[in-house]
Amino acid sequence: MRISKSAMLALVAATALSACAQNRAKTDTPYVARDVGTLYTLAKTRLDQRRYKESAILFDEVERQHPYSVWARRAQLMSAFSYYLNSDYTESIQSAQRFLSVHPGNRDAPYAYYLIALGYYEQISDVTRDQKITRQALDALGELTRRYPNTRYAADARLKIDLVNDHLAGKEMEIGRFYATRRQWLAATLRYRRVIEQYQTTTHTPEALMRLTEGYLALGVPMEAQKSAAVLGANYPGTDWYERAYKLVNEYPVLAPQQAEKPAKEIDPVGA
Q: What is the pLDDT of residues 203-239, one digit of tens each?
């Protein structure tokens, strides 16, 4: 039994070591010394062949084998670009951030900031999910436009900022409508107000004003509902949202201040 146990332990140990070796082989690039020109050219060839993962690894090798060469600086940025094309956004962001930490004043710094912003932007998920990445994308795009406002990258970033804000507004609307279906009107109106105050230039503003009208009526404050409907009518007079708000306000009896503590009638969410 002693011999059998010893043999078994040795077999388990050998298997574990073999597995570790295989994992390292998959993740570590073997060090093969090559001159910088050959290595960079090979990386660029892989990029042209759309073999983006291999290209990124080879650009990383340029930096690893020749860290003080003029090629290393360019390779860092090309590595970030290759990872981005391969949809390895976390690796792309990290490579671009490493470039900026070493070369903050380089002429290619705007592009590095742009790659970071794109890396977050491409990971934005639908409004039903957590929007942490969306806010990171907004921060990265904003930093690019603040630092380098006159670059072509900033011009594209400004367009993307509008889209990101619209996405965040959509998330607030989605939460507001959820509260409305549960008749949690106060929580719903707070979400709609956030859209109007923070994302007023987005496509969600007309609906937010209509939903706010609906929420105020349900809370028994028709005067506030009329104000929201009036703002909606002044800014979006020809929309279906205004027609719906107008209809709600006119169907709801106007209460005197002392009567406005409770809703005069139950309000159903409109198309929530």
A: 999 999 999 999 999 999 999 999 999 999 999 999 9
CB 100 within 8 A of CB 109: yes
- Non-local CB neighbours of 263 within 8 Å, separated by 6+ positions: 217, 218, 219, 220
- In one-letter notation, the amino acid at residue 51 is R
The residue assigned the tokens 């002044």 is 234
Structure tokens belonging to residue 21: 């070796």
* 194, 172 contact by CB (below 8 A): yes
Question: Which residues make Cβ contacts (< 8 Å) with residue 246, sequence separation at least 6?
Answer: 229, 233
Q: For the stretch 262-272, what's the b/e string if a residue is b when 16 or more beta carbons lie within 10 angstroms of its beta carbon?
A: ebeeebebbee
Residue 192, burial from CB neighbour count under 10 angstroms (0-12, 13-18, 19+): buried
Cβ-based burial of 196 (10 A; exposed 0-12, middle 13-18, buried ≥19)? buried
Q: How far apart are CA 121 and CA 246, in angstroms?
A: 38
- Dump pLDDT digits (tens) for 187-199: 999 999 999 999 9
Do 107 and 73 touch, CB atoms closer than 8 A? Answer: no
Q: Chain centroid to CA 2: how far?
A: 59
Q: How confident is the model at residue 8 (pLDDT cuts 50, 70, 90)?
A: very low
State the Cα torsion 7-12-13-18 to the nearest 10°: 130
* Residues 6+ away with beta carbon under 8 Å from 32: none
- Which positions ≥6 away from 80 have C-beta within 8 Å? 92, 93, 95, 96, 99, 112, 115
Is there a contact between 242 and 230 (Cβ–Cβ < 8 Å)? no
For 120-143, what is the mean pLDDT?
Answer: 95
